[in-house]
Amino acid sequence: MGAVDFGAKLLRLYAGADYGQLGLRESDHNAMYAGKRLPLAVTISATHRCNLVCSHCQSENSDTKEDISTERFLKLIEEIAEAGATRVGFTGGEPLMRKDMGRILERCRQRGLIVSVVSNGWLVKRNIDWLRGINLLFLSLDGGREVHDKIRGPGNFEKFVEAVSAAQGAGIPVAALSTLSSMNAACVPEMADIIVKHKLHWMVGMIQSGFTKRSDQDASKRQMEEMVRTVAASPNLRTSKRYLDFVLGEGEMKRCFAGIGYCIIAPNGNMYPCFPAEFDHAGYAGVAMLDGADKQAADGYRGISILEKPFQQAFDELPLYRRTCSTCALACHVEANYLYEFTPDNIRQSLKLMRPAA
User: Fold this and answer.
1) Residues 58, 210: Cα–Cα separation, whole Å
2) What does the alpha-carbon distance between residue 58 and residue 16 come to, in Å, rounded to a whole number?
3) CA-to-CA separations, 205 to 141, 149, 179, 318, in angstroms, rounded
4) Which domains does the chain have, with CATH numbers?
5) Which residues make beta-bridge pairs with 237?
6) Are 128 and 170 in contact (CB under 8 A)?
7) How, if at all, do strands 114-119 and 87-91 pair?
8) Planar angle of CA 258, 35, 267, nearest 5 degrees
9) How many CB atoms lie within 10 A of CB 115?
10) Residue 276, H or E segment
11) How far, in Å, CA of 185 to CA of 83, rounded?
12) Which one-letter DSSP state was computed for residue 320?
């Protein structure tokens, strides 16, 4: 039923679309979208906090920054549902570090939302009762035991296996989420074996060194080709062929629905069309020091706070982000845009993710 609802609402989005602005014109950066908006999917970075310091992570984690309050978070879920969303995804930081995450997930279930959670695995077993009933649990996997622990810290591979067992025992579909880079290029075949052994779905994406500022983490063209060839052969791969072609330079992204059909919310309550907008410090961080005309000239993108405005109002007032679309290769956004284009492979893979892997 959730998939049918999503498809019907997506057709409504197309019926009122401004097809020119769905393109990737940089001239539309910071412009208001003239067509119909409908927030079908919302991704929320639930907290600044994380118990790990992974070498490839792009999140700006902190133990001191303030997160969205419980009261506002629960109200936010209500507002998201009222706005017509069908899917809500939680990431971080580590979302299970929020002591109120159980209440937040329960509110999502009460509103009939399709829910996914991204976790590093450490806190899954102890909080499994919170997670019962969610539609999909993403667990980070960045190598075999040795490489995974080198990237994420000692003991992390064991926690991954423990989390897989706990989630599958609770009937929760589990997908391994892997960031492919020079750090794990040599062990992708080992990862493919782990996926099959533990009966997991598998989603992959390429490292975004533009965020990590570590160009040494980029895979070479030859490494990328070998990794893509290996993951493409996995029967449990849920990443689309179109995305794999895209990262090899054999395809393109023609439309972007960020801020039109989906959005993200940062731990501090700021709404953005996409993660590149949130992390584009060259674009928006420095302009906070400017005033008036100078701030406008800087063409900055600062997002809109849902602490100050209701979700629907913030979404309706969200300007388009088009500064870095031509270089964006974030799997979560590229795949979302392909799904929104009714790409058959993306539809099939999304449906497979809603049930346990074989």
Assistant:
1) 9
2) 35
3) 12, 19, 5, 27
4) 2-278+307-352 (3.20.20.70)
5) 202
6) yes
7) parallel
8) 30
9) 21
10) helix 275-279
11) 42
12) P
- Residue given tokens 């208001």 in the structure block: 32
Q: Could you list the beta-strand ranges (E) of the chain.
A: 41-45, 87-91, 114-119, 136-140, 174-180, 201-206, 262-265, 270-272, 304-305
Nearest of 283, 286, 259, 255 to residue 271 by alpha carbon: 259
**Cα dihedral 212→213→214→217 (10° resolution):** 50
> Locate tokens 């997160």: which residue?
67
Query: pLDDT per position in the chain (358 positions), as tens?
Result: 588 999 999 999 999 999 999 999 999 999 999 999 999 999 999 997 776 555 555 555 555 578 999 999 999 999 999 999 999 999 988 999 999 999 999 999 999 999 999 998 999 999 999 999 999 999 999 999 999 888 888 999 999 999 999 999 999 999 999 999 889 999 999 999 999 999 999 999 987 665 555 666 777 889 999 999 999 999 999 999 999 999 898 888 899 999 999 999 999 999 999 998 988 755 433 334 334 444 443 455 789 999 999 999 999 999 999 988 877 888 999 999 999 999 999 999 999 998 999 8
